[in-house]
Amino acid sequence: MRRYFDMLAPAKLSPSCMCDAALCCALAVTDFSMTYMGPVYVLVGMALILGVSCLYLMAIFMPVYASQGLPVAAAHLALGGFLLGNILFNYVLCIVTPPGTTAKSVREGYHLAAGMNVRFCKTCRRAKPSLTHHCHICKQCVLRMDHHCPWVHNCVGFYNHRYFVLFIFYLCLGSLYAAVSMWNRLVGPYPLMQPRVGEAMILAFAISASAAFALGVLFLWHCYLILTAQSTIDFLDNWKERRLCAKEGLRWHNPHDHGLLANWKEAFDAQGRFWWIAWGLPSLRKKQGNAVQFVGSPTPPLYRGLPVSSSARSDDIDSMV
Ligand SMILES: [Zn+2]
Ligand SMILES: [Zn+2]
To answer: How far is CA 100 from CA 21, 159, 286, in A?
Structure first.
């Protein structure tokens, strides 16, 4: 946090400096909350998931069981249990799985990038493969870093990206299912509820419906990034490079893009005949690969393609923090 106050040191109290000061304070508060309030975010997230689940059991499942019988109630329970199981599994795995750092892959990275201009992290004092960025909250370089997520108190990178995307996928489906079930309960031909239960259900419906919409947008965004082999951090740099190329009449090509299907399989570590279902199923297997060599293709390593030293990409800025 000290670096933000260092930035303020030469400031005089002019209007523009006041704006800078406000921005620095906002950044400092964000940094502080991301660094020290992570466990609180995780507890809040877990409490919301379990709270809506408990309300579902009491106010949805029991009336359905009473009015429509065991088969319908069992089908609801199986679907709800499947969604909740996948939500919790991917949430916990995303929290506890290290995203991957440069410590193990640095030697291999040098080997693969022999003769090329390798980027270097000034903070970690290690070579950085392409798509690796330094996280100043985790205080390490993260392989194929997507972003630092306060809700999982962890960076989302090479080894836990799959769990993060599946977490928001199943959370979106679970929220949608909860919202539809609660709406049916609120307007359906069921016995009247006590006022307090009714109010709690209206609140839970509002939370579930809002969460389903926001998570749906977020999931579609990550689908686009995965299919086009981009991370959230790299998207802006790629967009700028695409615009620069377009101005010069050139067509920009992402050197990490191996095609929609190959990108999808690689991101979810789903190979083989049953990849089309395996991508969404729970898996404890450590992701294949090392974030340097593209899995499933003997050709180009991820180092290839990027002009690493000349362009001022965001990771160069990261390395200064
Ligand atoms: Zn670093
Ligand atoms: Zn981080």
So the answer is: 35, 6, 11
Residue 155 covered by a domain: yes
Query: Is the Cα dihedral 295, 317, 116, 255 positive or negative?
Result: positive
Name the pTM for this structure: 0.79
Sequence-distant (6+) residues with CB within 8 A of 185 are 59, 60, 63, 201
The answer to the question of residue 225 being in a domain is yes
134 beta partners: 141
Q: Is residue 33 part of a domain?
A: no
Q: How far is the CA of 150 from the centre of ligand 2 (A)?
A: 9
When comparing pLDDT for 107 and 241, which is higher? 241
Secondary structure class of 13 (helix, strand, coil): coil
User: How many domains does the chain divide into?
Assistant: 1
Which pLDDT tens digit goes with each residue over 63-100?
778 878 888 888 988 999 999 999 999 999 999 999 98
Model confidence at 193, in pLDDT bands (50, 70, 90)?
A: low
What are the residues whose beta carbon lies below 5 Å from ligand 2 (ion)?
A: 135, 137-138, 148, 155
The environment of the single-atom ion ligand 1, i.e. residues with CB closer than 5 A, is: 121, 123-124, 134, 141
Tell me which residue range forms the domain holding 173: 38-318
* pLDDT reported for residue 107: 54
- Considering the domain boundaries, does residue 22 fall inside one? no
